UniProtKB/TrEMBL annotation:
A motif (Histidine triad motif) lies at residues 100-104. Residues 8-115 form the HIT domain. The keyword Chloroplast does not apply. This is HIT family hydrolase. GO terms for molecular function: hydrolase activity. The active site is at residue 102. The lineage of its organism: Bacteria, Pseudomonadati, Pseudomonadota, Gammaproteobacteria, Moraxellales.
């Protein structure tokens, strides 16, 4: 699928839209989801333009997973949670709403997962949780 460089995450990567960033390096960015499915819902994205995991260069995918693991450990430590749902939607047919590949880290149980991309969260609360996660990294 062709990559649309006007998608929300491409715009966040270019600094055109704000984000509560918790981690950034040359290849990957992690930031808070603004419509969290649980408190602490964080997104990890490769900077490489790819729509789905299937389009992503395997080396970029491998590196991104290393950062997913790193951020997951920080979430566990910062929020004192024991379980994290790792979710990755590839394709609109799977429910993907933003066409730039990303990994969801959702500190909850699959049985408690809130509705997907449904309701804006409390920005002050999201910011405060993001700061805790950032401090644990
Ligand atoms: P997906 O449906 O897998 O593509 O997930 C996209 C995620 O991005 C959803 O969980 C949305 O809540 C989240 N989202 C959409 N816009 C923004 C934004 N501007 N900043 C942070 N997260 C966003």
């Amino acid at each position: 699928m062709a990559y649309d460089d006007q998608n929300i995450f491409a715009r966040i990567l270019r600094g055109e839209l704000p984000a509560f960033k918790v981690y950034e390096d040359e290849q990957v960015l992690a930031f808070m989801d603004v419509m969290p499915q649980a408190e602490g819902h964080t997104l990890v994205i490769p900077k490489t333009p790819a729509v789905t995991l299937l389009d992503l260069d395997p080396e970029a995918a491998a590196y991104t997973i290393q950062i997913v693991q790193k951020v997951a450990k920080a979430i566990e430590k910062a929020l004192d949670v024991k379980g994290i749902v790792l979710m990755q939607l590839s394709g609109a047919a799977a429910g993907q709403t933003v066409p730039h590949v990303h990994f969801h880290l959702i500190p909850t149980s699959v049985h408690e997962l809130g509705k997907h991309a449904a309701k804006m969260g409390d920005m002050e609360q999201i910011k405060a949780i993001g700061e805790k996660i950032k401090a644990a990294l």
